[in-house]
Amino acid sequence: MADVATTVERSRVLSPRVTQSKTAESRSPLTLAWQRFLAHRMAVVGTLILVLIVLYIVIGSFAVSGDKANALNLKDKWLGPSIEYPMGTDAVGRDVLARTIYGGQISLAIAVLAVTITTIVGTMLGEIAGYYGGWIDAIIMRYTEAQLSIPLLFLLLVLSKFIGNKLPEVQFLGSTVSGSVFVIILVLGFTSWMGLARIVRANMLSLKQQEFVIAARAVGARDIAIMFRHILPNTLAPIIVSATLGISNVILLESYVSFLGVGVQPPTASWGNMMDRALERLDTAWWLWFFPGILILLTVLSVNFIGNGIRDALDPYGDRQR
Q1: How many domains, in total, are found in the chain?
Q2: What is the pTM of this model?
Q3: Is 286 exposed, middle or buried (0-12, 13-18, 19+ CB in 10 A)?
Q4: Average confidence (pLDDT) per 10 residues, the chain, 322 residues
Q5: What CATH number should be reported for the domain holding residue 212?
């Protein structure tokens, strides 16, 4: 009787643990990833900051017209922050608040479009190289190594200088966009995929030997179906993290070349070329560099925080390490 009572008592003590274990196992991977992301405080803070910045440039475009961002008003030039101009004016009387709104649209559009191109190219080449191997893998990887030897910043400066000014201006989101914007998008998009291609190739080499891939081949699945329906979903974690962190890199690169005067060209505003215009009165007209600079800083930090949070959330061993 004592042994029976002891067994019953142990079962009562262990039953909550068993129930919790079953509950944890019943949660979907997406639910677990979302809970891990919410547990990452800096990722949540970064998400809130990024949402506020996006709302600022989206809602602001409805409150402030695009013409105001480029409207010249020489009698109001070099004015500091005030009720009429909350972020002051520049050397030709343009409203800095309006230019940060429409400049943010250009900066974020460049980042998203360039990273989209990078993600597509890097994922495709990495998958093909890793899945087929052999001479196909050798050619793609040698080309990747050749691309890595080209200094990206130098290439971006040269092409923006000699090609960007020759392209016609177009209307985008209610504002005039210079041809240099498209040069920056294409250069960054087609010259930043090498790291992602290597990551995808390494995962492909590992996953194509797994049992589920062998089973798919056994039932007659085509190579394209195997790559995109079976292997690619298991490679999404590093792809998403790379794309997220790539956005902050593109924003910084665009700011570099625009600050040097060969990036996004007037009349198009971007956060980078707004800081270039601030060089005329760097010490006295502090508002010209402070507001676009703080927006660049907050955007890059928030995207990096989100990328770190996604990386930890998609880590299958995250719960075990905790």
Answers
A1: 1
A2: 0.81
A3: middle
A4: 47 45 58 86 94 92 80 84 88 88 88 93 92 91 89 77 68 65 85 90 87 84 85 85 87 80 75 80 85 92 90 67 48
A5: 1.10.3720.10
